[in-house]
Amino acid sequence: MTVLNAPVDFSGYMTERAKRRQKSPLKSLIKYIFMPDMVSLGGGCSKSTSEDGVEEGDLLVLTREGQKESSVEPLDRLLQYGGGLGIKSMMDFFTQHMEQIHSPKYEGWSIVPSVGSTDALGKAIDLFANEGDPILVAEWTYPTAIETIHQIGLEFVTVQIDSEGMIPSSLDHVCTNWSGSSPLRLIYVIPTGQNPTGATMSLSRRTEFYKVCQKHDLIIIEDDPYYFLQFANIPVVDSVQETQQLFPQLPGIHNLVPSLLSLDTDGRVIRLDTFSKLLAPNLRYGWITAQFPLIEKIMFHNENSVQQPSGFTQGLSSKLLTECWGPSGFLEHVLFLQKEYLVRRNALVSSIQKHVGNMVSLTIPTSGMFVWLKINLSPSQLATPGIMDQIFESMVSHNVLLVPGCMFSPVSDNNLVKDEPYLRAAFSYTTLDQLEDSAIRLAAALSSFGLSK
Amino acid sequence: MTVLNAPVDFSGYMTERAKRRQKSPLKSLIKYIFMPDMVSLGGGCSKSTSEDGVEEGDLLVLTREGQKESSVEPLDRLLQYGGGLGIKSMMDFFTQHMEQIHSPKYEGWSIVPSVGSTDALGKAIDLFANEGDPILVAEWTYPTAIETIHQIGLEFVTVQIDSEGMIPSSLDHVCTNWSGSSPLRLIYVIPTGQNPTGATMSLSRRTEFYKVCQKHDLIIIEDDPYYFLQFANIPVVDSVQETQQLFPQLPGIHNLVPSLLSLDTDGRVIRLDTFSKLLAPNLRYGWITAQFPLIEKIMFHNENSVQQPSGFTQGLSSKLLTECWGPSGFLEHVLFLQKEYLVRRNALVSSIQKHVGNMVSLTIPTSGMFVWLKINLSPSQLATPGIMDQIFESMVSHNVLLVPGCMFSPVSDNNLVKDEPYLRAAFSYTTLDQLEDSAIRLAAALSSFGLSK
């Protein structure tokens, strides 16, 4: 049996805000409420609508107290106050899920639910960064993360990325040469199907990246919404039929690239998971995994902000995951998603190869929902101010919309990045026919710039 | 027709954080997505589980696209990303509701949903206060608000309260004599059924309070979860039957004390509403009403934190409020709650009057779910350090739990308040039998201190 290490103690790095996050004094009374024979006028619990029987039949079929055997909490419990954690059936699900999929390598990891990874990101940052402090991010990254970090007031420090994501030597270089007044402490990374580049870190890249983070004592915020949307090494083929024949090579849940959390022996990874790409974005339900002292602070932060995800959302998710699906149903659902997205990736990439050809360069994404295109502009075009505005207008006039690269830059002076020759294409939502159409239209939009296949 | 004023411009008071909250640049692309004939590879929307038909029948009866006429958004829409506002049917409901119930008195008020009033409080504070800034609060107030404000790092400045809530002359005195380095800008108030004192501000108290807030240019955070739990002037009577005969005097939704928002001509009130006491606490769904420039900043804050309440929660709430209930059903539900809480208030207060008598003093609450008891200790008992610990232990040994007053104090040095002779009794959740039992047990617990009825 493997003996696991205790995690590194990062409490000395915490913000004063984080240090103030403590158990509510009122919680010390809870033990009295549950004493036998105790009559409590202590709690401010309120009547919930479930108790006057309004929804039954009208709205919702979930479990009511004593109605039937179920691992899902009854409606009365789901709708009552519940602190910063959430319902037990889902906490058990998360624990088993993380053990099975990521098997963390240190003693004392823990989980807290979130209302989605954007809120989770803010809470992870709140642990360690004050306004004005720096954070390491990829040179192209997720706009909502950029906006969230910007609004909190951190300084972006960028790391170069390639087709495998953040480049460890670039990270090492940036950290080694850092001369800011606050130390580099936090790094934000999307390791799988990175938004917007689609890049997925290989295992060796992850290992090397983690070592550099250890060297510079960085705490890693691993934002991994696309983790299950992996396609392994399945090639791009032209037709849906050919793609379908490759389905048996899909990784399911067993042959996925290991997460950074699963390589983390120090407890320096704060991993953000979400149901957004797994069930539905507007569930507003995710979970955070890290060493307990950090998770506990986030739980206290939850108790003084969102409390916990909506009881309906938790109950419905629990019903789906623990009763309707179970482990085999979850695998089946992941495979369903992998098939859906693989078909779309192949449709888009093969259409681009066929119709757009050498007007762009791309790396075939092995995960996620994005293809990152570099437009092969001539040196003189690249030196033309406003060239990307022109290309955008050309796309609009050809009725095709891809997102210009500059939208993904954390650099605050837009003039420095607005003519970077990149476009992000998302293949998650458009129909298969539209995917091919979009490539044809993109080719037309670019050909007016003298580019050719 | 009344001409309404434009609100006062408070933008000069905003924090740098609030000023940074802006529309995401990516949102500028949305207009292109909706152009006719446009094929978009722009959005990062994902497949949602609703599209593979898993929940239908198993879990949830809501509306699916094209299924039938409904004002509630279809499931596909509910489960997709939707920005910082939320679904239209609920935004329409909130607007009509606020117009009907509060009828704001200035031009350009607006609404944004919240995931509950605790999160809303943090976001309202974030607009105007930095760490270290002061905030005015009642000398006894809601523990989760205390904890939230403490963790954010504000300094508490207390205002005295009586049986009608915050005392305007005390507020005026505190503001006039303020000598802190940052100006007093924010005041947090629970005007109806205050937690923990049960105090409800009368109309004249509200008017006077608002004038003092105007005088000192304070922005008012009106946290009003118990607004609909008003009992007007219905007296305490002994039996449930007698109470039932008084039900016709309940205010319903038409004879409620006006909110501070409804008196606000300047746009200086940020009103927090929630479904927690109206439908169920763990819905995690509320709404914030204030002048548009403040609401817009909170919407941007939502977009970079919680996004919006869970789609399930919004959809189920919309189904309930706009389809199942409608206006008459809402009134009926409010009356149901007022009846439930009135019966409980009368049961508890009459039991205390009968069994505890002059051992305590209390003001009969005209709203909410709390009774605030002052224990009539002798001067020498009041001068005994640890007296309230002894009373707490006596309560526990008599199997009755009320919350000691010190738990509701924002004063950080617990020694200064721990022997204040107050107890909060909540009558929201205990059964009627238990309410009488609790009074009998409390009497026994207190009688061992030489107190008598």
Automatic annotation (TrEMBL), chains A, B:
Matching Gene3D superfamilies: Type I PLP-dependent aspartate aminotransferase-like (Major domain) (3.40.640.10)
Stated name of the protein: Aromatic amino acid aminotransferase
A family per Pfam: Aminotran_1_2
Highest taxon of source: Eukaryota
Domain (Aminotransferase class I/classII large) ranges: 110-408
Organism classification: Eukaryota, Fungi, Fungi incertae sedis, Zoopagomycota, Kickxellomycotina
Residues annotated as signal peptide: none
GO BP term, pick one: alpha-amino acid metabolic process
Protein family: Belongs to the class-I pyridoxal-phosphate-dependent aminotransferase family.
Keywords attached to this entry: Aminotransferase, Pyridoxal phosphate, Transferase
Species the sequence originates in: Smittium mucronatum
Record carries keyword Transferase: yes
Required cofactor names: pyridoxal 5'-phosphate
